[in-house]
């Protein structure tokens, strides 16, 4: 694996490195960690990389690695830059024959995402998008419960993602994470909606399989001087008639990373909290409440395939990335061995990326429209 | 106290009786418990009332009691009927000189509520509305925290009230509670919104003091054959610029009575769950999280004045009614003694009733309007 | 009902009053609230009692009330004094023909408790002991689960009761509750063990039906100047071979009233926390975890008979007293009507009182013995 | 790193591999994964190791690696075998110049542990023991709170470790984990006490710094046919006068891995649950309750140094091993660079190992003694 972005002062780069190497299936062999060659070198050194494979730009990395003999050169790139670089880096990698793992959201805008899909389709290479929260065993179980009909017809989805780290103008203090996430040029058309709202939307669709028919959004910028939304609230009509409420925020003072989902069907409802990720509750009016826990009792093959520890030994955030990377590695290996990848080891790809970008654009459009109530969801 | 409604097979009548007599300040002396004289008699007997003071109708009760000598006759009526009888019963009681405690929502519609206010004002009598959830000590503390500025400027309110008891057509099975609550003639223009949405709205306004400027509502009837909404989701703009999300439902399968509120300000946020009512959490990005508990450490006078037990001895639903009844009794006593009632012992009245009815009408109006996004809140 | 003890500055008197009158089955008609006639009068006045039935001593009350015509005089006494007065007051009441409800522990020592049983047996009157925590619906359900074999053979019981209110010499500050509870003359041979350890022991025995065979106790006085234990830890061998750990404390800084029990059997285990009393968890290695909630789904008749509210409307401490008083009233009424009381409406009596006193004496004996490991439990 | 034990069907080997490679500081280069050469080969292949460095025995591995040139050979061994092999493997590694990371408990018995200390001292090499639970950031914070006096004088410790996976004779079903853990020859003198009781004891001592003065233990074998305790309950006197209760079990039906600790001091108490590891509660009677969370607000340098993710991104079990391995790697690197290791990056060593083995032996001794109450803790 070669990494694009993710120098030492970044956040998500280290997460991808830990996630990718947790299972010993993937080795980081090279990187272009920063637009600053100096920073890239420092990062490569700290990671004990061969200095000759620490590059000054992703283009250099891709071109040089391409020249290395097979078996020696990197097998794929991992893109962990700010959003605006996702598309050009992914495009260049794919067009030079490298598979891609990319942080979310897929691209800077919907047009790029559609274009990226074309490139992926034409090259036939593998593309994974790290919508990591769907990697939790209990989310696999939740999807399984919906798929197997245990919830009946889905009627209501409440998905929320309150955070509080942007309650003031952090981006003006030199905090790098805040700086690019609040900058339209690097982040795209939305702030909180793009950064975390897309996770919420992806989670709801992953579990239920429902698609948005129309939505009504209310985005706000609370912190003076900020250019992108730091709060968003959305009413949703799903295509099957289910109703949804999606709200996310980065100004919910004191909230950490409180992604939660509740799905209610005619037969039962489920509740899951990301901050207590190994617990899933299923309940119904007449049947009471059952607590499903990672690796306790009899679970679906899907949940088991994404579990590493015995019951009660907490698995967390890093394992969600590890699950995507490991499944991506399995898919790669299957390809090399001429086999069909096992659908048990799923991971998000460009279709989820396109939906995420469409979600951002539809939400922004709806929010800007203060007259019409419902915005038809268009891709 | 004389009770109107609340026969043995009702739910809320018994709650009012228990709440009113918990502190020994109020005694039930008479009642017109049902439109069936037979049922009323049975209820009176079960409550050990003097049979001569168990009446066949509220009019009879009010007129007969009025004739009794002062000190012997009831001091006030408690109205616990379905909604459509609130107004005529309250009007008749007030016009005959009796103070009133009334279950919420205040009346069948906004016009009645406004009319009722006029009658209250002209008679000068005391009217209490049992929006009981504001009677919890931790809600008093929450209001105190907001009032004293500990949250800073309020930016976001998330208030939710999912229940699951109406996931199917319970009203067709002869269940009395479901029957009148889903019948427009007895319940009013809204179902879930009227029954529980008004509690959510009242709770948010009580704690924050904010008023709704405009809203965008999406009400749904999920259960076939039902006439009133069993699910409602609302986006709110408060007058100070704060954003709100209010959702309530009676088809959230497996949910019991899950009234929850989160209020986020520039300085801190608070979280409260009705099903764990003696706990209030206050948190902020930099200050971390503090758990405030009923009767632990140093609390506001408001919280203390509504607490009966030492720390860790759970107080619950019945105490919220008791707090309203006791405070109402204190106001009555103050009046008799020519004193000004102590504002520490507050309770909701007709103004909250008007707001609740206006909330219902504005929400229904907004929901029916599928074109315009925002409905200006009008009273 | 006539009350002995429970003046305005007491704690448990008000709890008994609220509990007894919650359901409208019992009316407070007279009282001897304090050894100070002045205090007794003040209390009676605050409770709106007829001044002629507010007495200066319990003996006066019992003798005067006895002279009143049947139907007018009190039916029973409620004893809510410090422990040392339980026995003489109960004895005098019983010997003059009055039934008794008494706060726990039953008496000052085991000998008194045994003597009291003889008096109860010879008079044939009804005696209730307010071990209130067994009045929670979820405890009724827990007992039902054990009785019906859902846990299999019981192997281990962990019951704990940490409090923190006596972390310093509160009794020296004039705090009345602390003063008598730490005074051997009024409280008996044990402090924390008598006050709360007996609740823990009673709860374990009520749920499981197991009896203590032998125990090994370690009591400590942590606060200098205190005369009775403020901390106790006990290993228990139950008669069926089950192992127990019982610990209680009043110096667990920051703990409120944290009575908890876990019972593990060969088939399943249960967990209950008093501070979240409407939740009971049943779990097993292979079956996972089920959350049982007051009035949700299908529960035992025992649990239902002690529930007042719909699901999700918290019931708490006052209802546990109300359940004992109501059941006592039912037993009284059955007696008057010549019927057999319904065993569904159970309440603790003198047998539980004797066991509690024996528990105190055996624990104190074991703790004082620093040589022998096991103390055979003797009654 | 070379691994001893940890073939594919083992549990803890994979944990050590994941923990050691999470941060990219340590690389697995060789292994003797099983006493079966076949199994060892299979494991090595699955881990993509150079087949020439997959050995048939730990002796072979140590001798062969020793012959490799510096920089090429492994730097240390990681011992993840059943207990009885810890000592011989560690001894052989140390005597041949390799540093050691070893799973707990340190050895098969106390004598071996003492002997091991001598070898470590004489070779001057580094030895780490994976008492992993002390690697959680919130445990670092807890220790910091005690050390900095925020709890005052420690009075009471309740530490518990209930599990339920051995409720029946799992060891007879061919389950490898159960088989060696219940076999005295491979596991040592104690079952549950050795496997998990030592973790509980280590956790209590790590946080508080207190030492056991005397104890009173009650071990039981509940499952017929089992040779070692599956349940243990212990009263403890700490050297400063604090009281302790330690209980652990593997027959608590339905419990997963429920290691919990509560420490109460004169100024405050703390509560921590391993299954919710990123939360630490500190509370006091007068100050109320504060929830400390990983990476929220201002924490100690110790907690921060063991944290990888932003607030609300759950860290779990694998990170506790990673913290020990990373700190061990830092110590190794410091040694190579001639520097003093930074005490911030601490890890358990042979002293903790000796205490753990002494704990086992003293507890077993006390439990076998049914006459004398207190067993003086001897090392």
From TrEMBL, chains A, B, C, D:
Residues 5-130 form the Gfo/Idh/MocA-like oxidoreductase N-terminal domain. This is Gfo/Idh/MocA family oxidoreductase. Residues 140-270 form the GFO/IDH/MocA-like oxidoreductase domain. Gene3D superfamilies: Dihydrodipicolinate Reductase, domain 2, NAD(P)-binding Rossmann-like Domain. It comes from Aquirufa rosea. It holds the Pfam family GFO_IDH_MocA. It comes from the Bacteria. GO terms for molecular function: nucleotide binding.
